[in-house]
Amino acid sequence: MAFRDVLDIEVAAGSGGDGSMSFHRAKYMEKGGPDGGHGGRGGSIILRAIEGVESLERLVGQRKFKAENGRYGEGRLRQGADGQDTYIEVPVGTTAFDRDSGKVIADLVRVGQEKVIAQGGYGGRGNSTFTSSTRQAPRFAELGTPGQKRRVRLELRLIADVGLVGYPNAGKSSLLAALSRANPAIADYPFTTLSPILGVVESEDGEQRFTMADIPGIIEGASEGKGLGLEFLRHISRTRLLVYVLDVTRDPVEELRQLQNELRAYDATLLDSVAAIALNKTELVDTDITAMVEDELATFGLPVLPVSAKEGLGLPELRDALFQLLPDRELWAQTHALEEDVEDVREEPLTLTFREDAPERGAPVPERVWEVHGGGFEARLTRFSRHLEDAAEYLSNLFKRQGLYAALKRAGAREGDTVEIGTFRFEYFNDEE
Ligand SMILES: Nc1nc2c(ncn2[C@@H]2O[C@H](COP(=O)(O)OP(=O)(O)OP(=O)(O)O)[C@@H](O)[C@H]2O)c(=O)[nH]1
Ligand SMILES: [Mg+2]
User: Where is the OCT domain (predicted)?
Assistant: First the structure.
């Protein structure tokens, strides 16, 4: 199975069902009361993190996800059924971005974690809701609202505690194999590792463990696309500890300098990570050579651990050092949490625009008109677009309660002025004076 760590999908939540406009009917009864039920809620699209799927590959083939619409309400106060939610199962470590805004909308770091990425619409209320002492037979009901639609990018970042970085052939995979039960391909040609591999490293007493990620080798110029490029650095962008793996027989100081340059080009904050150096293949050189290289590497200010993945030298010391150095998960999370987009549906602020329309034929004065935008009033209207005329009185009372009349008054509206919201027009009055 190919390893896939980025996938673009489209999601559409279900619409809410419309409320019903209905009147009770019974034998021997002329006309009963309103009994239109509410529409059901639209289904949402929910991401759920599951274990053990290392790649997004499973999802390929399905790029569009839709959730069920809510059913409409019916007479006899029957409420429409809610639409079913649609779950998309993704590997732990998946981050979802809104492709249009670029914002992070979900960041799943624990198995079982769920996040709604497209909200289902609301069901409309049936006409039975809108009765009042003066309105006993409302001939209107509310429409459901549309479900949220989004273009989403899913990105998988392995959630490993420790990340191995180094030039090709430095022995990263050999180290992972020596420290864990993982079984990565190991060979003496560059770019043996083509996709990230995870292993679990246990402490000697078996009490503690951390996960370690082995990623493809990085070379000078990777930031310009040389070798396999830097894309795989995404998977170590969230590790708490970086281990630079260097081959003592090459030029470790120069290689580390170049590695850090490439990391900096990808994401400069990577260089702030807690890090250590595993100086590998030390069985191939004299101990004084290793000691000399260790001295030279001291200028980087990082702990240096001489090892031989092949011969098993220095491995217990390396492992113990990594357990010691690994930053506390909770503390780390506090400073590295991705910002989540809180999905509050922000209403546009209310604006009132005044204009004078030319007087109608025969009328003595121009018509004074107030255009209303924002404040949620237009959205409210569209929910009654089917029975706008019948709902007019209800709506103008509602808008009054919601402060529209007060705002108009402050802006200088006079009795008899026309208020215009989209295509809906009504006369302004102020019965409180
Ligand atoms: N002599 C010696 N050879 C080693 C040691 N560690 C790894 N090797 C050899 O170095 C070669 C590369 O090892 P890998 O573990 O595949 O290296 P890598 O860093 O994962 O390489 P890429 O996946 O290509 O980036 C293999 O032939 C290993 O057997 C060591 O400690 N001593
Ligand atoms: Mg490898």
Answer: 342-430
- Measured by CA distance, the residue closest to atom 13 of ligand 1 is 171
- Secondary structure class of 153 (helix, strand, coil): strand
CA–centroid distance, residue 193 to ligand 2 (Å): 4
What are the structural domain ranges in the chain?
1-156, 162-333, 351-427
Is the distance from CB of 42 to CB of 15 less than 8 angstroms?
Answer: yes
Residue with the smallest CA separation from ligand 1 atom 32 is: 281
Distance 291 CA to ligand 1 centre (A): 21
Q: How confident is the model at residue 389 (pLDDT cuts 50, 70, 90)?
A: confident
Long-range contacts of 188-193 (CB under 8 A, 24+ apart): 190/217, 190/219, 190/227, 191/216, 191/217, 191/227, 191/228, 192/168, 193/217
Summarize pLDDT for 334-346 with one digit per residue, the tens.
676 665 544 544 5
Q: Which CATH superfamily groups domain 351-427?
A: GTP-binding protein OBG, C-terminal domain (3.30.300.350)
Q: What is the largest CA-CA distance in the chain?
A: 108
Which stretches of 13-148 are assigned E, i.e. beta strand? 45-50, 64-66, 86-91, 94-98, 104-107, 114-118
Reported as a single tens digit per residue, the pLDDT across 108-117 is 888 888 999 9
Examine the pLDDT at 226 and tell me if it is beyond 60.
yes
Fold designation for 1-156:
Spo0b-associated Gtp-binding Protein; Chain: A, (2.70.210)
CATH number attached to the domain at 162-333 = 3.40.50.300
Q: How far is CA 385 from CA 25, 241, 350, 382, 405, in A?
A: 26, 58, 21, 5, 21
Instruction: Give the Å distance between the CA of 278 and the centre of ligand 2.
Output: 15
> Ligand 1 pocket test: which of 164, 167, 174, 193 has the largest number of ligand atoms within 8 Å of its C-beta?
174
Q: Of the ligands numbered here, which is closest to the C-alpha atom of 245?
A: 1
Residues 154 and 9: beta-carbon distance below 8 Å: yes
Question: How far is the centre of ligand 1, averaged over its atoms, from the C-alpha of 169 (Å)?
Answer: 5
